[in-house]
């Protein structure tokens, strides 16, 4: 009996070989991607500093510090970080024992001046009322002494007594005249001094305004806000107000760079996945250590120069106090290439 064996079509691929070929192709692809990825990493890592100058920065603006020259305790707070306030709007309510002590000191000084003025007025009034009597007694003693000068019958002792009375009368009259004149002068000086103290007291009360703290300008309240119940020494900020109309970036330029930034250079500010076109506005003759929220603790950070960057007029600025990166390309070609890629990906905001 003849059995016909039906063999596979020779054009049909072997399934084992197919799986082996597919796995080999996948392994070669992964290997090639890994090699090219490592090469690309080293090229970017070592080649980027030759193409772009990059460094961190902080979005900031003009700061207005709200503080008092007294030791105060915050009793209530009307604002919170990020809230917009207008000039003259109430921010907080405080109380200050130091302010009370200052007011009490001025009040004691004014009371002492009032007591001294009363004493001078009494002495001046007494001297004024007895001045005519002293002058009359002085004239009488002078007439008596003149009469005794022509008389030969008076004894020496009597003459000495008359001359002593004349000297005492002159002294009393002169003393009362001087006391009246000095009392008038001192009263004028005390009035002027009391007026100065009263003006200082009024200024202290006006500045303290009953413990009401108001915003000096319009703006956005920063994150540095005191807490209710917190005691603050003189000069410690109760709040900081940022001006949203004057936003800029403080760029901490690394010391390792091929060229120094110049005023007018075009830069790119990176915030998240956004790239915002900006320009260098000012080169600050100042260096500082950039201190992000998560600062490294394993090594010291060197102070780097600060460059002030301002956004283009039609650009939307990131939120205040944001941490950004700033890129300055050494050549216009690389800047145009990066800008084209950014536009292609839709992440450029110019």
Task: Explain this structure.
The protein has 350 residues and is an alpha+beta fold. Among the domains are: 51-66 and 240-349, Beta Barrel (Elongation Factor Tu (Ef-tu), domain 3), CATH 2.40.30.170; 98-209. 44% of the residues lie in helices and 26% in strands. The strands form two sheets. A six-stranded antiparallel beta barrel has the order 1-8-11-10-9-12. The protein has a four-stranded antiparallel beta sheet with strand order 5-4-2-7. Helix 2 (97-150) packs antiparallel against helix 3. The radius of gyration is 45 Å and the shape is rod-shaped. The relative contact order is 0.17. The mean pLDDT is 81.
